[in-house]
Each structure stands twice: as structure tokens, then as C-alpha cells.
Amino acid sequence: MSSKSANATPNAPVVERMDQLVGNTPLVRLKRTGAPSGATVYVKMEQFNPSGSLRDRYVAEILERGIASGNVVEGDTVAVAGLDDSAVAAALIGDVLGLKTRVFAPKNASRRLFDLVVRYGATIEWTSDEGGLAEAIEKAAGWARQASDRLYVDSYRREAVRDAYAAMASEVLTALDGAPLGAFITSISTGGTFRHVARELRESYPSVRMGGAILGDLELPAFKEHRFNELARFSMREAFALRDELAASEGILLGPKGAACVGLALQLQKELGPDDVIVALNPDSGQRYLGWEQELIDPSEN
User: Are 118 and 165 in a shared domain?
Assistant: First the structure.
């Protein structure tokens, strides 16, 4: 893998809009963590996307395709469900593209990202506590269907999402510059990132080990079927503990999903050769979790 001098200063990009900064996020090598004689571990830093998360990729892909096709025009409204990273991404990217954003979320949803979403200009439509996220999804999709100037955005638009993650996989391969990719680690919730990135990477590295870091009690038996898939479960408490270790030793502040991905990478590090490379995906900014740890840790972990 080629490297630049620590003193080299690449030309900073000049862009017209923030959405043009989506993607091309850096890989950062872990120098003080893990086995010195094991595989090299890099972290793919998705918090460098404009809104601070991986979700910028597919949100930008969906909205930009809609505008290019003429199906979405300035002044239209984007509807999303859940007060999460996707809502932040839609609020920011929608705003710079001249679109409005309406977020549907249960009244009892965490307020962790509320300020970010509102400051990027989105409005919030609260749904019932009892209905949970399922009701929020139903309300958002139903509201969007009522008028032609509304678009419901989720992570299930297969072509756009596939292409967004294919672009990320291509970035990894370009950055590695021919270095042997032994493993790629991502967190698993819906499994979309895992599936799409695995498909792309295995075209170049058929035997690459795809790691899935799982937070909590999620059961995903389908991902165990491939012989080169590696799954590991982490508690939120374990993830935050590793986050703190990495912040102190590497100067990298990861979110809990990213920390769990590094945890799995360190487990695989000794199993791969010293010439191999492991890439662990950090999907969002660790800063947005500071002060919210106790809300996110399951009381049964105490």
C-alpha cells in the first residue's frame, strides 16, 4: 500500500455544495493497538462524510438520482423514518440540494440526534410511542404517497444503495493499491452494508473474510452460511470500553459500532498473515455519542 510523507499536504478539494464531499473517506492505520506481528488494521473513517456518517452515501445517491431524472425538483420534501443517522444525512443533503426534510419518529425516540436534525432545517412529525419505528415508517411512506412533490427515502432502494456501497468498496481497493485484503469488518443491523460491500470486494478478493460485528441480541443466521463470513457479538458496554481505549491510544474517537468492528478486527488479526490488511468500518462520529452512553447501555449489562 502506497503512503505519503507525513509532511506532504494534498490539495484540499474545492466544491460548490457539501454533498460533493460525500465519499473518499480516509483509512487510518492503528499503530498502538493489537498484535505488532499480526495483520495491519486500518479504520475506514465514515465520520468524514458531511453529516458525519456512512448514511450520507445512499441518501446522496438517491436524491441526486431523483434530481437528475427530473422526478425530484427544488422545493420538494424528503420524508424519512427514525431519528437516526439517516435523518441527519437527509436533513443536511436535502437542504443543500434545495429540498425540505420531514422526519417521522416515535415520541419516545432518543433525542441524541434531535439538535443536529433540526439545525439542518428538518421538521419532526412525532408518532405514537406504542407504534414504534414500524408506525413511523408507515406514516412517512404514507405521507410521501399523498403528493407528487414528496419522496420517501429509506435504505431499501436497491440500485441506489448497491451503487453507493459499491463506490465505497472501490475506494477501499484503490486505497490499498494492491495490498492483500484479508478481511473487511462492518457492523450489522439490517445487513445492507455487509451484503453489498461483500459482493463488491469478493469480485477482487474471492476469499476475503467478511466480518460482522453485532451489537446486542440481533439474530442473523443467514450471514453465517458463507464460509468466509465471521460474526461476533459485542455488548454496548464492551464497545464503549474499546472506544475509550482507542481514543486514548490512537487519538481516534469511534462510535460504538465502529469500536465493535475494531474489536472483531483485533480478533482476526492474529489469524491472518503479517502481510495481510484488515479494514474495519467506522460508520459514524463518536462525538455524537458522548454523554449518551448510559441511555444506550442495556441495564442488564450492569
Answer: no
